[in-house]
Amino acid sequence: MKIRIAAVGSRPREAFEELTQMYLERIGALLPGAKSSVDAPLYRTEGALAEALERERARTVPYVVLLDERGKQLGSEAFAGWLGRERDAGRQLIVFAIGPA
Length: 101
What we know:
Elements: E1 2-8, H1 13-28, H2 34-37, E2 38-39, E3 42-43, H3 46-55, E4 63-67, H4 76-88, E5 93-98
Parallel strand pairs: 1-2, 1-3, 1-5, 4-5
């Protein structure tokens, strides 16, 4: 399973890359090969993200999670359980989208 952390908007690329690197280092100890299974592109608009998702060629449709401070919050164990179930169900790509308000 591949994980994509997609940022949408005009936020500074350097700040996003720094945060992404921090998360990759954190999960690296828990997920062998994490750097090859996680990517973190930056999209200028929501439309650009949608177009990129349309171009994905895979057996399963990408699962897109829109991250929002008002959304459902999961603890670490619940999140790990959800992610494991998606992996076990054969999901090939999960996209966590971080965007403008």
